[in-house]
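Table 4 source record.
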Amino acid sequence: MKCRDTKKKITLLAPAKVNYRLDVLRKRADNYHDLRMVMQRIALADEIELSLSETPGIRVRCNREEVPDGPGNIVWRAADALLKRAGLETGIDIFLVKNIPMAAGLGGGSSDAASVLMGLNELLGLDFTDEQLMEIGVRLGADVPFFIFKKTALAEGIGDRLSAIEGLPPAWLVLVNPNIHVSTAWVYQNLQLTKKTDTDKLPEFCNRIEDICSLLSNDLEQVTIGRFPVIREIKEQLRANGARGVLMSGSGPTVFGVFATERQARDCRKLVSRNTSWYSVVTHTL
């Protein structure tokens, strides 16, 4: 395929996500799990600069030294997968500024990969549809299609079957991470499944902060808190300082508290971060 490169460089924001709900329904024959999740993008974001180069190959630089170049990096694999799907050989330089904590349950790597797919699609003039990009993305990670979908979503299957959720109110969030990394694979390997059914209903209408808080549930919390009890302490501190609802996001260890106003969120963060080395930030839903 011949590309129509009308631009040489593009800069993107790759937002994080939180899970308002994460139900693990069953283990599949392929060793993945069938899930039911309510996923919400938030304003905390990584920054990605994509540049076309006359030097062949894909190169990744990052503001964090521990982030690898080459196939060990999901953004490298995303660029490689798109070029192969398009039948192109061209030079790509990727500069990644990581603002989202890594291995934190916030989907940073998946969002970065999704942004690279969408950005290169635009930069190279490939005209792939979102559905085609999602087909490429799901092979990189189960959450990648969600970030290409660009809407608050009910995610089912392994997280790749997406339905838009309309009407959720905006919310302010305080994210707190105790500066530890959690392996998603380890969490699922240690999960003890309890009986759940597909007929467990989500609320039909969610237009108040209280409705968001009624959604909050995460089957993975039991595993991660068992290994890292500090997560329970963070949840208790967020509640004690005004959070309307509190939950660990994804496989953790990041915990978020839900607030109706920015002022409430900032007051809480100030109190929770006092005398601790925990990472914390105030953000809002998209």
